[in-house]
Design brief:
Length: 138
C-alpha cells in the first residue's frame, strides 16, 4: 500500500506534533504573588527556600556548559575567519590560473603577431603566481 493513500479513519485527521514532556511541578499553575500573611507562614518560606536551592543547584550544574559555550563560540569565530581567508586565496589563485591560461592560449594562437609576446609573458606570470598561491595556501 502506498504511503500517499489515506485510510478511512484518517480522513480529516491532522498530524499532531509529538508532545514534549515537561518535568511536572505540582504548583506550576499557582499564582506567584504572596501577601505578607502568606509569606509569614513557615510552609511558604520552606517552599521558597526549596525552590531557591533547586535553582541554585541547577545554576551550578549549568555553569560549566555556559563557559564551554563561550569558549567554543570564540573558537568557531576564529575558524570561520580562517575559512574565509582560505576561500579568498582559493578564488584569487583559481582566477590567476584561469586568466593566465587564457592569456597563454591567446599568445600561442597568434604566434605570428609580435604583439602576442607580452600576453604570453603576463599569462605565464599569472599562471605561475596562481600555482604558487595554491601551493603555499597562506
Amino acid at each position: 500500500m502506498a504511503t500517499s493513500e489515506t485510510q478511512p479513519d484518517e480522513v480529516g485527521a491532522t498530524p499532531a506534533a509529538p508532545s514534549t514532556q515537561k518535568t511536572g511541578r505540582a504548583l506550576d499553575g499557582v499564582t506567584r504573588v504572596l501577601t505578607d500573611e502568606e509569606f509569614a507562614s513557615p510552609g511558604a518560606r520552606k517552599m521558597l527556600l526549596e525552590e531557591l536551592q533547586r535553582l541554585s543547584d541547577e545554576n551550578n550544574l549549568l555553569q560549566p556548559y555556559r563557559d564551554k559555550y563561550h569558549a567554543v563560540d570564540k573558537q568557531l569565530a576564529k575558524l570561520e575567519e580562517k575559512l574565509q581567508t582560505k576561500r579568498s586565496v582559493e578564488i584569487v589563485s583559481g582566477s590567476c590560473i584561469a586568466i593566465g591560461g587564457a592569456l597563454i592560449g591567446f599568445a600561442l594562437s597568434s604566434q605570428s603577431s609580435p604583439s602576442s609576446l607580452p600576453f604570453g609573458i603576463c599569462g605565464g606570470v599569472l599562471l605561475l603566481g596562481g600555482i604558487v598561491a595554491k601551493a603555499i595556501k597562506l
